[in-house]
């Protein structure tokens, strides 16, 4: 079957219709090559057509139980009506929908964004007596999916290693170049603050307190711009009482255009995730987005991160658990504007030539063709 005549339906009950991976990267990119791309969502915002993608809304669930049971059935019914050539779902809770579609003879792909069994074990609100059996059940269901579904898409080698290699590909979350079309020139103006930036969920295990503790000892006129929601929400009141808070600009959640605008006015991007969970094995999406913006990077010194930073010559790495070392490296980097600019240029060049979404979408299209043979 020719790609131009292909119809694909993406399914999610968890992600926003504007989700970066699901809509911005996959669906919108696929719509440039395929005849018909449908995205079935469950947010109650109605159906519409955006970027040549047909977004079809089955209605917002009233509770978690409703989402899991009723919304799942509604997604299954809506998916069958589409008569798509390939069904591509993005949520673990839709595995049963995927199995049902497969039993109906459909080609079905499971897009695994996270190591869910490990994630379940780290949920602070979930008692261990429940976490372990739930994690086991999810792992069992994913093993079954690996056997009966048409294909598996993952984001990292670590996750891919859990599935049948003959039916699995990696589609990494590299940035879309067109979103960051204006590389930052790192204009450093006399008398104006030097701007550090962190974009993403603000949590303890993503290093918020290490960043704030380090900020106390960063010299000169420096501001830390925090872009993203706090988890849990009560964390915000806790960090607002920190000694370094007067040097912080907090934005909360921002849309993609607003994030790009903030990055344009920044001088150093921080990725100081702590050595917990799967962070050491996950590709740091924000690191590549900083690079796409021409921003130099200061990241955790995990082996994977260290390899990326050294390969791209885009910044420095540091022990993320030690605020004193973090502040020392920040001071060194901000004091050498020439090297800072070089880091930014090299990072942008690396994204243009290697770490970009355009390099990934071709692999997904080839995977679709392979599945249809």
Automatic annotation (TrEMBL):
Q: Where is the Glycosyl transferase family domain?
A: 191-339
Name the UniProt key words of this record, in alphabetical order: Transferase
Q: Which residues form the signal peptide?
A: none
Q: Does the keyword Hydrolase apply?
A: no
**Which Gene Ontology BP terms does the record give?**
lipopolysaccharide biosynthetic process
> What does the record give under GO molecular function?
glycosyltransferase activity
The Glycosyltransferase subfamily 4-like N-terminal domain, residue ranges: 29-163
- What's the protein called, per UniProt? Glycosyl transferase
Q: Which organism is it from?
A: Pseudoalteromonas piratica
Which lineage do the record's taxonomy fields give for this organism?
Bacteria, Pseudomonadati, Pseudomonadota, Gammaproteobacteria, Alteromonadales
């Amino acid at each position: 079957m020719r790609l131009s005549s292909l119809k694909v339906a993406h399914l999610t009950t968890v992600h926003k219709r504007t989700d970066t991976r699901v809509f911005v990267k996959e669906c919108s990119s696929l719509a440039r090559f395929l005849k018909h791309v449908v995205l079935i969502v469950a947010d109650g915002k109605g159906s519409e057509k955006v970027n040549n993608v047909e977004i079809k809304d089955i209605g917002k669930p009233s509770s978690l139980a409703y989402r899991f049971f009723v919304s799942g059935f509604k997604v299954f019914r809506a998916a069958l009506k589409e008569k798509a050539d390939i069904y591509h779902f993005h949520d673990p809770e839709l595995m049963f929908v995927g199995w049902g579609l497969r039993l109906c003879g459909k080609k079905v792909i499971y897009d695994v964004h996270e190591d869910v069994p490990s994630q379940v074990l780290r949920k602070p609100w979930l008692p261990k007596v429940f976490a372990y059996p739930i994690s086991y059940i999810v792992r069992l269901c994913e093993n079954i999916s690996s056997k009966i579904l048409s294909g598996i898409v993952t984001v990292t080698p670590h996750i891919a290693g859990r599935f049948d290699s003959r039916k699995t590909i990696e589609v990494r979350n590299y940035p879309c170049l067109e979103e960051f079309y204006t590389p930052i020139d790192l204009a450093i103006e006399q008398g104006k603050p030097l701007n550090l930036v962190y974009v993403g969920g603000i949590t303890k295990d993503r290093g918020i307190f290490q960043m704030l503790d380090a900020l106390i000892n960063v010299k000169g006129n420096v501001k830390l711009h925090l872009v993203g929601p706090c988890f849990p929400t009560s964390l915000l009141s806790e960090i607002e009482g920190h000694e370094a808070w007067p040097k912080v600009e907090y934005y909360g959640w921002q849309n993609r255009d607003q994030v790009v605008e903030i990055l344009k006015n920044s001088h150093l991007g921080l990725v100081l995730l702590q050595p917990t969970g799967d962070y050491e094995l996950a590709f740091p999406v924000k690191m590549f987005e900083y690079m796409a913006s021409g921003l130099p990077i200061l990241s955790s010194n995990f082996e994977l991160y260290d390899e990326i930073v050294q390969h791209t010559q885009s910044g420095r790495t540091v022990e993320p658990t030690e605020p004193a070392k973090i502040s020392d490296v920040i001071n060194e980097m901000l004091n050498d504007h020439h090297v800072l600019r070089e880091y930014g240029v090299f990072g942008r060049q690396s994204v243009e030539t290697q770490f970009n979404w355009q390099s990934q979408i071709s692999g997904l299209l080839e995977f679709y063709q392979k599945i249809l043979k």
